[in-house]
Every structure is written in C-alpha cells, then in structure tokens.
UniProtKB/TrEMBL annotation:
The keyword Kinase applies. Its EC number is 2.7.1.130. The gene is lpxK. One of its GO terms (biological process) is lipopolysaccharide core region biosynthetic process. Belongs to the LpxK family. It comes from the Bacteria. InterPro entries: LpxK, P-loop_NTPase. Keywords: ATP-binding, Kinase, Lipid A biosynthesis, Lipid biosynthesis, Lipid metabolism, Nucleotide-binding, Transferase. It catalyses: a lipid A disaccharide + ATP = a lipid IVA + ADP + H(+). One of its GO terms (cellular component) is plasma membrane. GO terms for molecular function: ATP binding; lipid-A 4'-kinase activity. The keyword ATP-binding applies. This is Tetraacyldisaccharide 4'-kinase. It comes from Marivirga atlantica.
Length: 356
C-alpha cells in the first residue's frame, strides 16, 4: 500500500514536468507531421519495432521473431537489423563481423549476430538515417531493414511499425515521464500499424484480452491488437549437463520480474544479483557471484543479453566456467500470430510489385 501511495504521490508531484515534456513531444511530432522536419523514405522494406515507454517491453525478442519469420517464410530476402548499439565502446556505422563483440556493437546486436549470422546482417549506428544508405553500400542486395527501438525515431519513414506494451504496465495506465515511463503521450501509439501486448501470462483469459483491447482502443484506432508471452529455454554456457537445484541469478536488464517468477517456480533461488540495464560487469562483481555460488553449491543463471556481455570478456567467462547457464527468451504468440504474418506477407508482396 505504501509503495502504491508513494507512486501516486510521485506522479502528482511530477505532473507539471510531465505535462511540459508531453507538450514538447507533441510539438516535435507535429513538426514531423507537417513535414517541417525531414522524414526520409527508402526503397528497401523498413520495419520498425518500438514502444511508448522506457524500459524492457521485449523489443529484441520481437526483432528476433521477425528474423525467424523471414528466414523461414522468405529465405530469399536479405535482412539487416539496425540498432543504436546502446552501451557500445565504438562510434559511427558498423556492420558486425567475426571480430565484433558486445563491447564493440552492444549486447543486443551481438546477441542477434551470435544467433543468426551469417543468415542475416547486423548493423549499428547512432544516426539511422545515415545508416540505411551505408547498409545499401555494404550490402547492395539488401531487401529488409529491421529497426530496433525506433518508434520515436521519426526521421525514417517505416513501411510497417510494431509497438509493444508490457502486460504488467499497459501504456493506457501509464503517464509521461517523469510521472510515469511513457516517452510521449498515449495517443502517439496511433502512428503504429500493430500493437502487441508482451509478457502476458500463459493463462490469460479471453475476457481479460478483450478488456485490454477495449482500453487500448481508446488511443489505438486500429484493430491489430495482439497478445504474446515468453518462452524460455535454459542453455549451458560450457557443458551439456543438468543444472543444479540451487541457483544464483544475475540480471542486467530493465525488468527481470517475469524471469524471476519463472525460475522461482522450478529452482531454489539463493541470491539475485540485480544490476542496471546493459550493465558492464567487472571482474570484482563476477568474482563475488562465483564465490557466492561456490559457497552455496549453486549454479549461475543469467539472461542471454547478460551472457553475451560476459563472454565478450574471456576473463569474466573463465571465472564462472561450467557454473554458467543462460536463459534465452522467445516470443510466443497467444493471439494474433496468423494476422501478423498475413500483414507481413502483404507488405512483401506490395514491395515486390513496387520494385518490379
């Protein structure tokens, strides 16, 4: 109750600043809408994945879902992902290759490179308007660019825009920063073509989904409102063996609550080392994790995003050795997958007609 009260009090106190921020974002969007600020249109198919809020709504798993869709249904198309590369130590445009790691291109792009290259290409750049021509120069046969976290990046006109909203904190119950976590007002979501509620529980009822659709439709004026959950698949970093009953959890993500709930149902969690999103682990921190796991006869589980940061530093990886397991997460649609695939196939067919 006190936590809820504190949240409401914070929202009230910050409401003047939220109103100012909301007006600034509305004016910015207005300048794009009247074409006072330039919007660039490219010949290749541009698909954007983003959200209204800051924090983790599952954008990377959704981009990975789209990658799997193209590889399975349209393997003839050349696909490139484009991210900012948050937390990387490099600057400018980079196309991932065998020499790159999480430090050079960022953890999420490196995660996608590890899983899908060379079937797709992975690129990073702060300025995505400059990045798309750079992709075409490096990969002249490119057909599709998947923009990660780009809903507010209005300088590029996407052919298709997917916006995600966390089931536990739906956008229609949230407020603009700093009162809440929204980057812009709720009505901004209407720029999207599809709204997907993510991280939904497996047992969500039809009644609850219809209720969420109704509340969302006050702002999102399209029928394409879908629901997805998370599917986990535990992987050993070093050895193919069964994990111990006791575990130490290490997370450096925005919202680890769903992962924790999943692991606590099957394992004895002796400690959770909770770090900020995109945290760069130090040797001292990993030594502490290893010492605690050893003392408690436990294994260590981290997210896939944390794992790629750890293996980018051999010294950190060697400390944990065969104790280390990671937990990839995949999008699992509960409703709307066929409709989404139909929309994506329609995009590709229209693109083929335009280019032929």
């Amino acid at each position: 109750m006190n936590k809820l009260f504190d949240h409401k009090l914070w929202a009230i106190l910050m409401s003047p600043f939220s109103l100012l921020y909301k007006w600034v974002m509305q004016f910015r969007n207005y300048l794009y809408d009247i074409e006072h600020k330039a919007i660039f249109d490219f010949d290749n198919l541009i698909i954007s994945v983003g959200n209204l809020s800051v924090g983790g709504t599952g954008k990377t798993p959704m981009v990975e879902y789209l990658i799997r869709f193209f590889l399975k249904k349209h393997p003839d198309l050349a696909v490139t992902t484009l991210s900012r590369g948050y937390g990387r130590k490099s600057k400018g445009f980079m196309l991932a290759d065998a020499e790159t790691n999480a430090k050079s291109i960022g953890d999420e792009p490196f995660q996608m490179y590890q899983k899908f290259a060379p079937a797709i290409d992975v690129s990073v750049c702060e300025d995505r308007v400059l990045a798309v021509p750079s992709i075409l120069m490096e990969k002249p046969g490119n057909n599709v660019v998947l923009l990660d976290d780009a809903f507010q990046h209005r300088s590029i006109k996407p052919n298709f825009s997917i916006v995600l909203s966390d089931y536990a904190r739906p956008f229609y119950n949230d407020y603009v920063l700093p009162s809440g976590l929204l980057r812009e007002g709720r009505k901004g979501i209407n720029r999207a073509d599809v709204l997907i509620f993510t991280k939904c529980p497996q047992g969500i009822s039809q009644q609850e989904m219809r209720s969420m659709q109704k509340k969302a439709s006050a702002y999102f004026k399209k029928e394409a409102i879908y629901f997805s959950g998370i599917q986990y698949d535990l992987v050993s970093s070093k050895l193919d063996r069964t994990i111990k009953r006791k575990i130490v959890i290490v997370t450096g993500i925005a919202n680890p609550s769903v992962m924790l709930e999943y692991l606590e149902s099957d394992y004895e969690v002796v400690k959770h080392f909770n770090f900020p999103d995109h945290h760069q682990f130090t040797e001292k921190e990993i030594d502490e994790v290893n010492a605690f796991a050893t003392a408690n006869h436990a294994d260590v589980i981290c997210t896939e995003k944390d794992w790629v940061r750890i293996i980018s530093d051999k010294q950190l990886e060697n400390v944990l050795g065969d104790k280390l397991f990671y937990l990839p997460m995949m999008v699992q649609f509960l409703e709307g997958e066929e409709a989404l695939e139909k929309q994506l196939n329609g995009l590709i067919n229209n693109q083929d007609k335009t280019t032929n």
